[in-house]
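Go through this pair.

…
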Amino acid sequence: LLSMATAKPSFGEDNDAVPTDGSVGPIVDPFVGNVKNYVVSPVEYEGPPVRGHLVFNASFEGGNLGRVDSISEFEYDLFIRPDTCNPRFRVWFNFTVANVKSEQRVIFNIVNFSKTKSLYREGMSPLVKSTSRPQWQRIPPKSVFYYRCPEHHKNYIMSFAFAFDNEEDVYEFAYSYPYTYTRLQRYLDRIKARRLDFFKCEVLCVSVQQRPLYLVTIASPQNLEDSRCKVVFVTARVHPGETPSSYVCQGLIDFLISGDPAAKILRDNIVFKIIPMLNPDGVFLGNYRCSLMGFDLNRHWHEPSPWAHPTLQATKALLLEYNADSNVDLDFYFDIHAHSTLMNGFMYGNVYDDMARFDRHSVFPKLLCANAEDFSMSNTSFNRDAVKAGTGRRFMGSCLDPCTNCYTLEVSFFSYTTGSPHSSPAPYTEEGYFRLGHNVAKTFMDYYRLHRLQSSVQPKRSRPKHEPSLQQPQAVAARQSSICDELARDHQEEEVAVEDTSGSATSDDSVQQHHYDTKAAARLCYSHKES
């Protein structure tokens, strides 16, 4: 029903043949199989495209759209291109539509999702932006439908209605907020241009397609010179379609390099090692879960190959190097992900036979829950699920020092609830993901009990010309008294919260979930750190 589109199957269907527009040959990128400036014309129409003949394009970094079928003048079936070398995964989409007509109304059906469970059931909707409105917005949920369709082998389909309102605009649609490899490079370049003495960015290795794997180090020079240091190791974006993890990771970096007094204290006491994008090839290609060669890298930590999984192999080697260094206390390993079926931010931890280690392991999620309103302890679990054996959290938790806490930090693709009785789900924005990253950084202040140092570090501020250069002694004394009162109040509130919090342990055949007495866990954690 469109110009030759049904005559030849597209990438990911029967073979690698590509549709054409009848005039300029192939319109699908031969490397990644995305449609490229594909013109949809009415049945039996001859001649050049006119306004209203939609032009689809996904041949750009992070793009994904493998095929378009015209159902009618107003309705289109869209097919997600599978991950390269792995047809199992079809979730991420990102494409543009151009040559629209003002007030043109359409229905887009995304017909080949590989997952049946989805947050579309809970009200999630695709994102859209346009040339004149460059900020991403969610399509109204009332225009989005998620259902099982008998015409497509009873697969689940997500349909949404949309009205184009500006003929000059190019519209872009996406599963979630895109975050490309190029965006990461520009972000790191801007920070490097500031020449901060506590920020270092180096290339750990290169990917299969020779893209650099960046390793960021954030710590004060004095901290790095100490004979012994505490290290927090963070990775993100091992699954390329889980774009919210990049926003959380950037939020973490933004806070750590900021002028906030807490950020300076953290830099003076902890060395942060961060790999913001563990799967650069998959991100560039617009895959959802796999690398260029079709591997789910988060199932290959046990034995990564230097030629098939070079970024994973280099990261694992670095973690083991820190673990073996007697001058390094590798306290944490975090792997940041996004979740397609659950709300809020939450964590997965490990199950250990040593109960003292287990108690220490449960402390950080509870502290994060106290700092981040969007973090859910009810979704947080500690397990030894067999299907997760090859993940970074499970494998590194089994081979690193018992004092190292290994977690998966998850954040919802869609929304969060605050836990109050009458609160409704609040969709995540880019700022919301950044804020979770900020709160993760702030939680290290609680874990390491660094708040006692904060009164000695005040943020710099510009002083009005009429203000004297030195504060009066009375003002200084009042300020110090206020800080002491605030710290005492915080300490009392923490004591009350600890006294009132308790949990119970439950288990099943495949997953064991454990909740621990917070007071005992906090006491074990603090006594361990102080010793």
Notes: Residues 1-30, 461-531 have pLDDT under 50 and may be disordered. DSSP finds twelve helices and 23 strands in the chain. The CA atoms of residues 496 and 519 lie 10 Å apart.
